[in-house]
Amino acid sequence: MTRTAIIFMTVSWGAVLSLLTWSFTRILRGDAAKKP
Amino acid sequence: MSPQNAPSSANEHWGSRIGLILAMAGNAVGLGNFLRFPSQAANNGGGSFMIAYFTAFLLLGIPLMWVEWGIGRHAGRYRKGHVPGMFAALWKHPAAKYMGVIGLTVPLVVMIYYTYIESWTLAFTFFSLTKDYFGNGTQEAMVGYLQSYQMIGDSSVHGMWKPFLFFFITLVVNIWVVSRGISAGIEKLARIGMPILFLFAAVLAVVILTMDPLTPGGASPADGLNFIFDPDFSQLSRPGLWLAAAGQIFFTLSVGMGALQSYASYLTKQDDLVLSGLATAATNETAEVVLGGSIAIPAAVVFFGVAGAMQVAASGSFNIGFATMPVVFQQLPLGNLLGVMWFGLLFFAGITSSVAMATPIVAFFREEFGIRRESVAWGLGGVVLLFGLLQIFWLQYGMLDEWDYWAGTFGLVLFASIEVVLFMWVFKPERAWESLHEGADIRLPRIFKFVMTYITPLYLFTILVWWGVTDAWPILTMAKTPGGAVPDPANVPFVHASRALLALIVVTFVVLVRVAWKRNRYDDRKGFTEVITGQEILS
Questions:
Q1: Is residue B534 over pLDDT 70?
Q2: How far apart are CA B109 and CA B380, in angstroms?
Q3: How many C-beta atoms lie closer than 10 Å to residue B530's C-beta?
Q4: Which end of chain A has fewer CB atoms within 10 angstroms, the N or the C?
């Protein structure tokens, strides 16, 4: 793989996985806090 | 969720927030994530495509997703889970309901041919398990095997009954799920199907990415990833690249279909849209960018080399999925089980999308004509069966391509353009913004209000005009086929017939909407009656 391909892949995967992790973490934390 | 407050059609509701997100993501994750995305990325400059892709995700995909969730939840207050009702709830004008007919036509038409394609994945899951295609070791042989199943050319490889049987089974499963309702049917399917889909995709990605080159110095899976992600910066100045990326974002998130809105109509004012919409989009993007990019193209590169994979990618998504991948599986240990996983994941990706397409249609007949859910679902099954049989017979004459272009491509962009104008301009940006944030777990940066009001509509109209000029007009006048080829004169009568059937579906829905409004004595200028916890107040 070329260096630029590695950078593009890392940034793409990183962005998507970060968004996934962040959004689900917020949801699970929020739901847990709402529970009586 | 707040089931006790659920204002959606006939008191249905989602069982849990995670269930809702899985169902929404199941609707979005489809065949395109695993077949269309890698070939689009590889054909459009790799890493450069990803720049345009993420730009479209931020300016088009995510804003449209929020718009659709917002439109759906707003209409749910009036027990409207279908688009004619949703548009009428946004715009108190007699034309609004008729504009919403596009939100019944598109999901029905797409559901008909999508269920048929979905049945191929079920059939090939079975053929993988029984090693039926083993022995067809070349790309050409597998294309012949696939076309025989599609009843194109030599149909002696498969019995005539097979495509009908698998279509029938696929349709029955779909309708059964829809007939069970939102929580017991669609949500349950998503809770089972989505984890299986991700598991199968992850196993396949690991198997393929850890393969050794077949010959010393031959291509490795990393070369496949390089093929997808290596940027060709010269392509960034090409408008076609930006439109291809916007188109991919559009299809992958399943916006402009009527299904997301219908799902969202089962939410209440207390439910969050903003964060849930973002989680849905993130789940879809993970399936597409991380998993979708790591299976088909890297496998094709290892077995056919970069040049061979380039040809495969250019030959179309279906060839990659149904011809290239089976050739690869035949050469791997436990290849038939890997084939089951591949086609199984495509089947789950397909069915979680096709049941979503049925939802707005079921909601329309339930809410406006008071017909029981089970009756509507099985009645819809009868209609899909009828038109689906026609799709099987007329596939070789271009019916599927024709419907896919007008409903599943151009229709989606047209639908999204209308809805974003209605929500952000007619309903007004302030009300739309406020409506989106009711019950929200996070507040969006205000820049997105500007994006949704100006940039997203502009983006959509650019695509609409560009496609109108470069594709829609030449296709309409039969200067070319939706696939870009010169039309075969023998197919022309079938193309006319396919278009006439599309027009018939539109006219039927227009009449049904008119009948429904008269029957229920709706006043277009006054709007609907809001329904909250059993008490009705005039909006």
A1: no
A2: 12
A3: 15
A4: C
DSSP conformational letter for B258: S
* Partner A contacted by B160 (CB < 8 A): no
Q: Other CB atoms closer than 10 Å to residue B500's CB: what's the count? A: 9
Return the number of other C-beta atoms located less than 10 Å from residue B426's C-beta. 15
ipTM for this model: 0.94
Interval B331-386: pLDDT, tens? 999 999 999 999 999 999 999 999 999 999 999 999 999 999 999 999 999 999 99
How much is the pLDDT for B529? 86
Do B367 and B79 touch, CB atoms closer than 8 A?
yes
How far apart CA B283 and CA A23 sit, in angstroms, is 10
Asked whether the predicted pLDDT for residue B227 surpasses 90, the reply is: no
B427's tokens: 């309903």
Q: How far apart are CA B426 and CA A23, in angstroms?
A: 31
Amino acid (1-letter code) at residue B226:
N
Spatial contact of B522 and B92, defined as CB atoms under 8 Å apart: no
| Tokens found for residue B318 | 């279906």
d(CA B503, CA B318): 28
**One-letter-per-residue 3-state SS of B56-121:** HHHHHHHHHHHHHHHHHHHHHCCCCCCHHHHHHHHCCCHHHHHHCCHHHHHHHHHHHHHHHHHHHH
Least-confidence region, from A9-23, B84-98, B227-241, B257-271: B227-241
Calculate the dihedral angle through the C-alpha atoms of B513, B514, B516, B522, rounding to the nearest 10 degrees: 110
Which residues lie across from B139 on neighbouring strands? none
Q: Mean pLDDT across the stretch B514-522? A: 96
With a pLDDT cut of 70, the percent of chain B lying above it is: 96
**B35-49 pLDDT, tens per residue?**
888 888 878 877 888
Report pTM. Answer: 0.91
Residues of A in contact with B290 (CB under 8 A): 13, 16-17
Q: What angle do CA B489, B491, B492 make, to 5 degrees?
A: 70
In DSSP notation, B264-297 reads HTT--TTS--HHHHHHHHHHHHIIIIIIGGGTHH
Q: Residues of A with CB below 8 A from B273's CB? A: none
Q: Give residue B395's Cα distance to chain centre.
A: 20
Cβ-defined contacts of A21-26 (< 8 Å, 24+): A23/B275, A23/B278, A23/B279, A23/B282, A24/B279, A24/B282, A26/B275, A26/B441, A26/B442
Is A8's Cβ below 8 Å from some Cβ in B?
yes
Q: Which residue has the higher pLDDT, B127 or B246?
A: B127
Q: Cα–Cα distance between A7 and B435 in angstroms, integer?
A: 39
> In this complex, how many residue pairs, one in chain A and one in chain B, have their CB atoms less than 8 Å apart?
71
CB atoms within 10 A of CB A19: 19
